[in-house]
Specification:
72 residues; 0% strand
Length: 72
């Protein structure tokens, strides 16, 4: 039986959800290693907070884009 190429690919939503889950694990890992990273990388609290804030801005922006894609 030939593959139907007119409809959406199967499993794209599951892959999208899995990628969001794995991507969100980054913030958990960063919080866990933060005390060690601050010592090893000679970071101040402000620098460590800037990294976390930049990650959150990027994450929130990506949620908007993924929301638009999921509505299609």
């Amino acid at each position: 039986m030939p593959h139907d190429t007119t409809g959406p690919a199967r499993g794209w939503l599951a892959l999208l959800c899995a990628s969001r889950l794995l991507q969100s694990m980054i913030v958990t890992a960063y919080s866990g290693v933060l005390p060690f990273a601050m010592v090893d990388w000679h970071m101040t609290a402000a620098q460590a907070g800037s990294i976390q804030s930049a990650w959150h801005v990027g994450y929130m922006s990506s949620l908007f884009a993924v929301g638009l894609l999921a509505d299609r």
